[in-house]
Amino acid sequence: MWRECAMTLSIEWPCVALANSPLAKRTTLKVGGSAEWLLEPSTPDELREAYLVAKEHKLEIRVLGGGANLIIDDGVLPGVVISTERVRRTFRPLDPGEVIHPDDMTEEQANKLFDIEAPAIAVNDPRLIVWAGASLPGLVRAASLLGWSGLEGLIGVPGTLGGGIAMNAGGRWGELWDVVDMVRILRPDGEFEDIQRADANPGYRNGGLGECIVVGAVLRLTLDNKHRVAARQREYLLEKCKVQPVTESSAGCIFKNPGGPKAGGENSGEISAGRLIDELGLKGLERGAAAVSKLHGNFIVNRGGATATDVFGLISEIQSRVQEARNIELEIEVKRWR
Ligand code: EPU
To answer: How many angstroms does the Cα of residue 224 sit away from the middle of ligand 1?
Structure first.
């Protein structure tokens, strides 16, 4: 079926390809239009091939992970969107000291990951080899089951490994790059490259990888105890649920905190955008079905059926009210596709 679609435009895609495919449900805010082409590779190699074919046809290329920090405009996005949804496998090193890269792993070796008691697995090696489309909530859950520490701070953070590394997802209890050993990227010239942690320079909400696409990573966690890891995750999640609309549809924080980043880019701005919006009484402000969260002023929630136009209308209104009242220009933190 997909090949038929592809053939009508005389492009033979190397993976599943859907024409004019809706994107809203693929983002956490659940707004936006469709992609001219949605490509769904299922391995890093297929992703690379899809990228090269799109490049060869001079099509605009965007990569979609969990759509967690993204607002897509209404209408049709030209070009291709490569979804990492199916590039989602996770592996464990089989022997102490030896990491088998996902690309080189046999089916049999890969399947062993799912049996965490399998004897061939190095039980005391707290590393995970993860493809870009693996979900962050899934990894956090796996770490808890394994009794490995390091990902607790990402509890309640949606999205995928790839997006999380690209933007250094995290919060006050830690960031994803804290546990990164190595990242495999696809460079704009279509070649893979492995970046070791020591050679990377991640900052505040920025993995520092520029235009490169993350296709996988090796994460190094710390051996701990299942109950302790689970308890910390629970504690952080409870704290987060008190102050952020964790269970509602949102794109995370909309605006950067103004006044920063501090020297070295390691920190957020000095003023909380959420507090600023709260102080101006804008929580609960609505535009269509989009509303400023009543829990945290820097979140816009989709109460069901909102459009990107509603969301951007609300964003503009907040920006002008903050500018008028405080003479502060709020800058958008989320990505926008138009
Ligand atoms: N506050 C209010 N009202 C609000 C929101 C916050 O009074 O509506 C107050 C809080 O009570 C607190 C202070 O403002 O005293 C700071 O709030 P918070 O701890 O929520 O931090 P933030 O600066 O608003 C940042 C990140 C969040 C991250 C939290 C916790 C940015 C733009 N936001 O928010 O990141 O979860 O710290 O680590 O840097 C995201 O990136 O998507 C995101 C939500």
So the answer is: 29
